[in-house]
Design brief:
Length: 407
């Protein structure tokens, strides 16, 4: 090989690689305006990797035994599931960006809130893509609980999948008058010492946001962009309240559960009489599975509890973006959303605008079986408050550790 050939070969090789990369980028951009038939054609026969939280048996059953075989049969898509939520997803994206990986491990992710915020900050999501989905027209994108995620405009960068509200959960046989505000919580703690605690996770921090909003004086006290001065003032009052009462907490406040699932176990065995959670408390599944007593009930905090949506996003370097779009569109279909709403299954509120559905689907949703034990979201909605800016959650995590756990 001549010197000229030795010089030209690596240059040509680099140009070919750059050309291929540029073509991949151009193809991805084209998907944002391509006819849906073309996207469906590109999606056919692909393998799509979906990273999601796998902590619920009913959610796992819905995905593995309904969604996976459905997209295989309908679109010849091989849907592969891997476990991971917020921090793992962000770490994956950051690692692949640092390594300049153009074709990543994961195509689509289940996210909301601070994860959406963090991924947007590092350009970790691909889009906007939602308007391309045929079933997106069945969602009321004017609903502020859908088009805004932790005070962030979604702008088509993630597709809504479910909507739910946080609820307080109690045993109606053992607790006659559950607390609905902080003064009443003080009375409860003194009457039922050791039966309440705060989990050091997303669920516990969500409860603290309701407490902080109450301290702020109104359901809307945390609305708007993150306010450092407001946070410092309200959080100081919050930590003062908790630290002055934690002697009445479970284990006298010397330790705090790391996960909401641990809270559920403590409630199930009677150690805790007051717990909380999303999906209107997640009561129905746990009662039907025999974990919670049938006397379990749920309600909203007087000043309000968080109502929000969770979403599906496509990563910036997803190798199968068309396949991910097809799967997400299926997950928004009336068929998949109705199956997801089954009270004996995933028991999840639909994001579809029922009134916009064809009459046969409208009737199916309106006659779907109702919950026997947990509250319907409509019973809580008058006490719904919006998620505050993601910085509140991020700061609460850090400060709960330093101002409460380590004190």
């Amino acid at each position: 090989m001549s010197i000229l050939q030795k010089t030209l070969f690596p240059i040509l090789f680099i140009l070919v690689i750059l050309s291929c990369s540029e073509k991949a980028i151009n193809d991805d951009q084209a998907l944002k305006t391509a006819p849906w038939q073309e996207i469906t054609k590109k999606a056919n026969g692909t393998t799509v990797n979906f990273m999601m939280w796998q902590g619920s048996p009913t959610i796992n059953d819905y995905i593995n035994n309904y969604v996976v075989p459905s997209v295989k049969e309908k679109y010849h898509i091989n849907l592969k599931i891997s476990g991971g939520q917020g921090p793992e997803i962000v770490q994956l994206v950051m690692g692949e960006k640092q390594a300049d990986i153009l074709s990543g491990q994961v195509d689509m992710v289940w996210i909301n809130g601070e994860t959406f915020f963090q991924l947007r900050k590092v350009d970790g999501l691909w889009g906007p893509f939602v308007k391309q989905l045929p079933n997106a027209k069945l969602v009321n994108m004017n609903d502020p609980f859908i088009n805004t995620d932790f005070q962030q405009a979604v702008k088509g960068m993630e597709a809504p999948w479910s909507i739910n509200q946080f609820a307080i959960v109690y045993d109606s046989v053992k607790v006659e008058n559950p607390p609905k505000n902080l003064p009443q919580l003080t009375e409860y703690l003194e009457r039922y010492p050791g039966t309440f605690t705060i989990s050091n996770d997303f669920t516990g921090m969500t409860l603290l946001k309701s407490f902080m909003a109450e301290i702020g004086g109104s359901p809307n006290s945390l609305d708007g962009p993150f306010d450092e001065e407001k946070y410092n003032s309200l959080s100081k009052k919050l930590w003062d309240y908790i630290n002055s009462h934690k002697k009445y907490f479970w284990k006298e406040g010397r330790t705090f559960p790391k996960e909401q699932s641990k809270m559920g176990q403590l409630y199930a065995n009677g150690e805790l009489l007051l717990v909380y959670g999303f999906s209107e408390g997640g009561i129905e599944e746990k009662v039907l599975n025999g974990l919670y007593p049938k006397s379990t009930r749920g309600y909203a905090w007087e000043n309000g509890t968080i109502k929000n949506s969770n979403y599906l996003g496509i990563l910036y370097n997803a190798p199968q973006k068309a396949g991910a779009m097809q799967v997400i569109d299926f997950l928004l279909s009336p068929e998949a959303q109705l199956k997801k709403a089954d009270v004996n299954g995933m028991n999840s509120n639909t994001v579809l605008d029922i009134e916009s559905l064809p009459s046969d689907w409208k009737e199916k949703f309106k006659t779907v079986a109702k919950r026997q034990y947990g509250p319907e979201m409509k019973q809580l909605e008058k006490n719904a408050i919006a998620e505050p800016a993601p910085e509140y959650m991020i700061r609460l995590y850090e400060d709960f550790r330093t101002q409460v756990i380590e004190k």
